Amino acid sequence: MRRHSRRIFNVCYRFVGNRTEAEDISQEVFLRVYRTLGSYRSAHGGFATWMTSVTRNLLIDHYRRTKRDRQTDSLDDAMPVVENKESAARRPDQVALLNELSGQVQSALTRLSPELREAVILRDLQQLEYAEIQQVLAVPEGTVKSRINRGRIELAKILQQMGVRPS
User: Fold this and answer.
1) What is the 3-state secondary structure (H, E, C) of 101-146?
2) Which of 34, 31, 29 is nearest to 52 (CA)?
3) Which of 2, 12, 35, 110 sits at a 20 to 30 Å CA gap from 162?
4) What is the pLDDT of residues 18-33, one digit of tens each?
5) For the CA atoms of 5, 32, 145, 6, what is the dihedral angle to 10 degrees?
6) 16 close to 131: Cβ distance less than 8 angstroms
7) Three-state DSSP class for 91?
8) pTM, whole model, 2 decimals?
9) CA distances from 52 to 30, 80, 92, 148 (A)
10) What domains can you pick out in the chain, each with its CATH number?
């Protein structure tokens, strides 16, 4: 489980955009995996893919539960969260720019529809193959590719509206 914890947390964080919620959902993923380990069948795909499916299902449940709460969020809650990243190889100004960009990307991701968001996260941030994403999302490969493409286009539009330009 240790080898999967960072990846699962990253998927959760990119989807919900809140470190505390992502930690809670990640913990719930591992509890669910532990409880349902007997239902895993290697013939249906790799263990990591199965865990990603469990994660996705819990994220969907979380999204549905919190939908009403999101409609009443205050403006302060909608402000982007800047991640703290440390790197000995980067200057502080570079780190600050990367953190700002990360926050902007996270904010833009939260504005995508859940279907497009999960496809983009799984492909571009988690670097899963199309076949793995197809298994996780339980949709045809053409739908996976379409969602990724539409998600990237929509994400680019949102980032452009936010004033983020490619360098």
Assistant:
1) HHHHHHHHHHCCCHHHHHHHHHHHHCCCCHHHHHHHHCCCHHHHHH
2) 29
3) 12
4) 899 999 999 999 999 8
5) -10
6) no
7) coil
8) 0.57
9) 11, 26, 34, 17
10) 1-77 (1.10.1740.10), 84-167 (1.10.10.10)
